[in-house]
Write a structure and sequence with these properties.
Strand content: 15-25%
Number of helices: 13
Strand order of the largest sheet: 3-10-4
Low-confidence stretches: 1-31
Oligomer: single chain
Largest sheet: 3 strands, antiparallel
Distance between the termini: 40 Å
Shape: elongated
CATH class of the largest domain: Alpha Beta
Number of strands: 10
Order of helices and strands: HHEHEHEHEEHEHEHEEEHHHHH
CATH topology of the largest domain: D-Maltodextrin-Binding Protein, domain 2
Mean pLDDT: 89
């Protein structure tokens, strides 16, 4: 009876105790189904654009959920692409293709893997406030002296390395906008200038894209682009990774393969970060807590730690 009682109480010291979920704590990584962890430390570069801030923090949080240490590194567009290509960072989820980031893809495609399309339609264009009733197409800018003088013949741009800035320079040439000039600053500075102009119903022209939180707070219109310099119906957005990441961090790569987005999701979170100045890490964590079924889809078949 005593020996039976000891056995029932786990008196065999040669066996490992199981955790409450039935797994062996000491050997959980070895016995868990799904891809191995591999390289535990990952670096994800990003540009602090509207959607990219959300998406980058979301992927970082998901990867930490499955056992990784993820460093989010804010950089300019050129460095975002080049660092993944040379292997000093691991992946980014900000590849706007085939049009906007075409020069980067052409330069680095041999060293970068296109992992997953995360958003199927991301249009870009020049944009104006809707009260500018007589401006509906990029063609309306050509030779438009009244409009040109009212904005000092200037399109107010963002950071110079952004693909949409290169598109805009191409548009100037394609549409014969010889008198026009594109200024560069940052997305935040451009939006401040746009909002200031709109408060007084002053004319202004800026490069913009969707998804973007500003469309939820201002009445704006994207100008028609009959020559499709900005990619027609819009780019698709992809997650891309350095060569070898799939072998070095199989679990992370599977998460990247399963992660996707939709406008409803992005539009829910962008205003909280960019209009209400909430911490993006807290915003994505809140979304994950409120949408466990979505998180389960992103992490299907991936062990969590």
């Amino acid at each position: 009876m005593l020996s039976m009682l000891l056995a029932a109480c786990g008196g065999n010291s040669g066996e490992k105790e199981e955790s409450s979920d039935g797994s062996n704590d000491e050997k959980s990584e070895e016995t868990s189904e799904g891809p191995e962890l591999g390289q535990k430390d990952l670096t994800q570069p990003y540009v602090a654009w509207a959607r990219e801030t959300i998406s980058t923090h979301m992927l970082g949080a998901l990867l930490e959920e499955v056992g990784y240490n993820v460093e989010l590194k804010q950089v300019e567009a050129g460095a975002m692409w080049s660092s993944v290509a040379d292997g000093s960072t691991d992946f980014h989820t900000s590849a706007w293709l085939p049009a906007t980031h075409a020069p980067y893809w052409e330069k680095y495609s041999e060293d970068i893997v296109k992992v997953k399309q995360v958003l199927d339609k991301a249009p870009l264009a020049l944009a104006v406030p809707s009260y500018m009733k007589d401006v509906n197409s990029i063609e309306d800018l050509k030779g438009n002296k009244e409009l040109g003088e009212s904005v000092d013949w200037t399109v107010t741009g963002i950071d110079p390395g952004a693909g949409i800035m290169q598109n805009t320079e191409e548009a100037f040439e394609a549409y014969g906008l010889d008198n026009w000039e594109l200024t560069s600053s940052s997305e935040a500075a451009m939006l401040t200038t746009l909002q200031s102009a709109a408060e007084n119903e002053e004319p202004i022209i800026v490069p913009l894209w969707k998804p973007h939180w500003i469309f939820g707070t201002m009445d704006l219109k994207m100008l028609e682009d009959p020559k499709e310099i900005y990619g027609g119906d819009g780019d698709q957005i992809y997650t891309v990774a350095r060569n070898g990441l799939e072998e070095d961090a199989p679990r992370a790569y599977k998460v990247l393969e399963q992660y996707n987005e939709n406008y409803e999701m992005i539009n829910e979170m962008m205003p909280k970060v960019h209009a209400e100045d909430q911490d993006p890490a807290e915003v994505v964590r809140e979304y994950m807590e409120n949408n466990p079924d979505q998180v389960d889809k992103w992490l299907e078949g991936v062990p969590r730690e």
